[in-house]
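Working notes for the structural subgroup meeting. M.R. asked for a predicted model of this chain before we commit to crystallization trials. I am recording the input and output together here so anyone reviewing the notebook later can reproduce the run.

Input as submitted:
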Amino acid sequence: MPEPTATPDPSLRARIDSAAQGLLYTSESDYPFDWFFLPGGAAGWPYGPEEFARRAGLAAEQPEERTLDRLLAPHIEKSDPSDARTQELRPRFEALKQTLRESVAEVRVFRLGQTEVHCYAVGDDGHGNLAGLHTIAVET
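Returned structure, recorded in token form:
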């Protein structure tokens, strides 16, 4: 495994940020997608949600793992076909999913929390780090 870098590859961040720009993760509230980077976090990748939370120094209340498909399904497969705005955004969410899959290896989605669930879609950036996106889902 390559030696981890302390900073993300600028082109990787630009690709992921560009794909997520202006998109909101819709649950009981709408939250943007934020860049996430964990230097050295890819050592031993892939691993589970408890280990992710530990390495990232995050509170691990009810950690769970989901797929990227399941995270984005409300905006793609389960989007309302009669909602013009939702259908207008659907290709952008599909492109976001594809960008993540092409930009980082073995994308995993970790969810931490109960009511305010922090969602991380991350993978190995090829330089020994984890990189991807974070958003929040509100679930009451």
